[in-house]
Amino acid sequence: VKIGIDAGGTLIKIAYIEDEKVNYQTFNSRETDEASKWIKEKFNNPSICITGGRSEQLAGLLDAQPQTVVEFDATASGIKYLAEKQGYQLGQNYLFVNVGTGTSIHSVKESQQERVGGSGIGGGTLLGLAYLLTGKLDYEEIIRSASEGDRGNVDLKVKDIFEGSLPPISGDLTASNFGKKNAMASKAPSDADKVAAVVGLIGEVIVTISTQMAFINDTSSIVYVGSSFRSNPLLKEIIKEYTKMVGKEPVFLKNGEFSGAVGALLTL
Ligand code: ATP
Ligand code: MG
């Protein structure tokens, strides 16, 4: 059996071939013991390739020394594989954006990836700010709450500034994330409103940087991957709409969060 592992800062992603198809499994990165135990119990003498910042830590717990691969290359080849399987025509040149704990942006030219930028604003920011603002720690609870919130009680839109007169850009654009200070002071936003605004902040920062990188690198498609999109349609929607608005093509791959693990699997 072949197993590809991407041990990231937050989550361990595993892709393996069983019954001639790729299967997926996830563990929390703090649970390396559990992950290694699962692998040892489920597979007999597997070949393993591992990538990601926590590779060494997890590799040390496995029976045999696994192969390793550079994370960015693994992610690039996993994206290429998943995109082809899912019928996307990405062409030779495109951008991919991995929104993990942090965010990493890569340009692909003739199948070679190059890291062209990044941001500390990522999935970890969502968890950290949500905790500071609401005391919530559970990911699923946070994003469920975000989907019920109203950013309009926290974020200042262009039309809030122009109040009735005609603005030079769309009034629905965010003028200032978290900028509705006076309204918040007279009526406190709910926890749901706060986390919805956090998702908005993260999505808008990432999509702004990513689309500018797409213009600089002259690519038309932007592939967004990473576990930060898991069960998070709000984040997807913000990024999708803004990417389309500036004339670029957003692509969200099914199982895109497993790109690194799939890429590691493909090297075996
Ligand atoms: P990095 O690549 O930056 O080292 P990573 O590979 O661990 O980190 P991902 O797994 O791609 O990062 O994404 C982690 C993010 O996904 C979290 O910060 C969180 O926003 C989100 N997430 C999705 N599901 C979960 C979960 N079950 N538990 C915690 N975070 C989750
Ligand atoms: Mg990662």
From TrEMBL:
GO terms for molecular function: pantothenate kinase activity. It is an enzyme of class 2 (transferase). InterPro entries: ATPase_NBD, Type_II_PanK, Type_II_PanK_bac. Gene3D superfamilies: 3.30.420.40. Its EC number is 2.7.1.33. Keywords: ATP-binding, Coenzyme A biosynthesis, Cytoplasm, Kinase, Nucleotide-binding, Transferase. PANTHER family: 4'-PHOSPHOPANTETHEINE PHOSPHATASE, PANTOTHENATE KINASE. This is Type II pantothenate kinase. It comes from Virgibacillus kekensis.
